Description:
Helix content is 63%, strand content 10%. It contains 22 helices and 10 strands. Strands 6-7-8-3-9-10 form a 6-stranded mixed sheet, with helices on both faces. The protein has a 4-stranded antiparallel sheet with strand order 2-1-4-5, covered by helices on one side.
Amino acid sequence: MLKKMYHLTNEGANALHRASIWMTLFELACSCAALPVLYVLYEMLQVYTGKMEATTSAIVYIVVSVIIVAICFLLYKKMYKVKYIAAGQENNHLRMAVADKIRKLPEAFLSKKDLSDLSSTIMDDIGTIEGVLTNSVAETVGGIASGVITIIALAFVNLKLALCLASCLPLAAIAMGLSHTVSGKTHEKNRYLKLNVSEGIQEYLENIKSLRGSDTMDVYQNNMDHRINRIIPRLVLFEFLSGMCISVAYNVMRLGIGFVAILGAKMLAGGEISPFVFLLFLLMSVRVYEPLSQALETAGALIASSVAAGRINEIVEHPEMSGSSDFEPQGYDIEFKDVDFGYDDEQVLSRVSFVAKQGEYTALVGPSGSGKSTVVKLAARFWDINKGKIMVGNEDVSEIAPETLFKMFSIVFQDVTLFHDTIYNNIKIGNKNATRKMVLKAAEDARCMSFIEKLPNGIDTVIGENGHTLSGGERQRLSIARAFLKDAPIILLDESTASLDPETETSIQLALERLTKGKTVLMIAHRLRTIENCDCIVVLEDGKVVGNGKHEELMNNCKCYQKIHNYQRESNV
Length: 573
């Protein structure tokens, strides 16, 4: 069960089993430590009542005690080593497994998740699981196992007293089982309230420049203060509810000590048991509940971790976008055949059909919200469509593994993603096998060298998180340099020169002509003057194709295109 719940490897599950066995042996060895005390008390009692004289040397008790302590130390050391190494390895495996899974998930899943939500799962939730594997699993299993074994062993000495000792355990288990029912939903709500705070902090840091330039800084900070204050009473409530269940279970279980003392005294007075047996059960009743009490506390952590495990399971068990890695296209035409697509209940595209031919420029135009970006992303299989077919080289993209398909595409969108690394490494993402000479050539073709040469370390300059030290145009040119370096047969463009000055735009357009020669180009156009010479222009309106052809044709027979063209011409006057 733990293996499935926490997505453990076979090696990790086996290591935790071994740690639990070592913990059980440690607890049993600790129980054996009560035996020298028992014999000392029994001998003292016998001497006190005059039934015998002291015969055992104190040295014997000391030697036996030292041996037991040494055994306990070695057992705990072995358990500790196995447990912590296994927990560390499983934590690393789980983080990488979740990160790798996210890489394979469809955009439909990722688009519903906030960045802080996913990062919180990888860092916080997996950290919670690591803590449970480190501090709870072996202790819970070892505590329960050693307690049960000790009670079974005592049953061979006296069944009545052993049953009396175990009589409260079912009630304690029921009280502990209620912990998840009573506090589970509160813990889950607390988790999302914490996530809400994390999202707010991330948003605050991302927009701090805008907030400084406005009069809303105090308002935003008060809002964050409100979010944080909402958590406090719920955290107190969770601790109270979970603590109450553990406390009830703890105290109910220890009632067994009183029951053993009362029943044992009665049996001793009636001559049913000897003083030795009575002392044995008194000492062992205290000792047997020690690991069981610890197991109750650690079991509480296991129950609480179910929320974190559930969030991880949501990612790990979500269906991947699968497909064949064998892709042998017949050319690189992109064809949409009666494609329908929607996000949940919102219909975005309806019966979209067109062909973007290899060696030609195909432009997508239309009003905001008409579905242009969706069409481009569907071509690269960011999502799977609801109906129809999308073909690349006469191959259905739904049957091709996304990572195999992505190798065929170079993508340049307006929203450029850069890494906190050097310019060189940011460009090399386009082709990990590229040489330094190839990277420099790509940077030159994308007209990046004009600003790279002004930086302190040139192309080896670290540009900060998401390239915040660069201008929008410079960041976009780096994105274009990646496309040059990848040199894929299909190019997807989203008005890739929109953030550039006129002079740079002209040089980039010339570079893009070299990059796209003989390739399939599907581009989103916001400014019609940039695509008047395109081979094919597809006009979208409300998710439907309302025009398809060259500029002159559309100006004659497509009202939507005419409207957009006239509006832009008037706005440029």
